[in-house]
Amino acid sequence: MAAATVTKLGRSLQQRRTFINARVKWVGDPYLDEAVQREKNLKQLLSLKDRIISSPSKSLPLSSLSLLKPLVNLHVTAAAFLQKHPSVFATFQPSRSLPLHVRLTPQALDLHKEEETIHLSAPHRNATVQRLAKLLMLTGAGSLPLYVVDRFRFDLGLPHDYVTSLICDYPDYFEVIEVHDRLNGGKTLALSLTSPRKSLAVSEMERRESIINGSRVQKGLRIRYSMNFPKGYELEKRIKNWVDQWQDLPYISPYENAFHLGSYSDQAEKWAVAVLHELLYLLISKKTETENVLCLGEYLGFGTRLKKALVHHPGIFYMSHKIRTQTVVLREGYHKEFLIQKHPLMGMRHRYLYLMSRSGRVKKRDYVPGVKRSNQSVDAQNS
Fold it and tell me: Where does the source fall among the domains of life (predicted)?
């Protein structure tokens, strides 16, 4: 009789939905907007840089760059983008019979070499492999199509050629297999774990709780999320009351399968938030484009759950509308506009941003008319 009562109560908890169908207001956060805004064009610049440096000659014909525009997600012509960043990209003519080529400036090449040193270091590689393994474990099946992984490559801190330069060196962790694509219905290549990694199936929230309590990770604890709001922001009283009750619900690990919960229940939403929190925590930037999150959620079968969780919990997640897209930011990862957890690659990206900012000091006379600076002016600036 007692067991039946417990089961009944558990089922009630799984199906209960107490959230009032009210709109949770969105208020801009200038600090987190700045954290997003300052990286404008950085991802595109680094993608183009990697394409250039990957060629055997460490350069590309200027005429071929138009083909790269969709591949590196440029919002202007490639020539205009290069012209905007003369501190990073330089043109030269290999010989009289060949057309103009593009290469990195000496300063940009130095930064790239330092970045490569980080990617090749054993501690960084091991940490990267574990983050990637945990991402795959969030799926339950331990695999993701490569095109989904590619969406998170930049924010995970993976090298641009991660399949050949990283994955192939860890056959005890990963393998590339062919799977049925749930979204497109056809066959596609996927990154898969070769075996379960139970020791990694501990979320950041669980790890913190075990440290606080000085005990091993326990299931079903009532773990509460830290919530931060911009100055002057207040939740409506009825929504605040719901959030307080929701915080006290048992925590379900994102590495567990909780699809048995009623999709609209409060407990299911707490699990969805756990998945979102862990996903963003795995990223070195603690943020990513919202479309990346929704694509992953759609592939995993979450439907609109992740989107609703993002909207319902502005104290945990912030949605920025800067740089021509929408970006979701893990609030606890930042103090004002600064990352709390300093990752070496993020330090490198700030140095690239500084180099990009120097481009504005180059005078118009330093450009090749209509395209780029002359080789002589490049050499003069770099000397």
Answer: Eukaryota
Residue 230 CB coordination number (10 Å): 16
In a domain, 140, yes or no: no
Q: Is residue 67 part of a domain?
A: no
Collect all residues with Cβ–Cβ distance below 8 Å to 272 and sequence separation of at least 6: 302, 305, 306, 308, 309
**CB-CB contact of 356 with 50 (8 Å):** no
Range of the domain at 219: 114-121+199-346
| Residue in this structure with the two tokens 């005429």, named with its chain if needed | 63
Residues of the chain with pLDDT below 50 are 1-10, 12-13, 363-383
Structural domain count, the chain: 1
DSSP secondary structure letters along 77-98: -HHHHHHH-TTTEEEE-SSTTS
Tokens (6 digits) for 338: 């600064």
pLDDT of residue 6: 37
How many angstroms separate the CA atoms of 320 and 278, rounded? 19
Tell me if 108 sits within 8 A of 49, measured CB to CB. yes
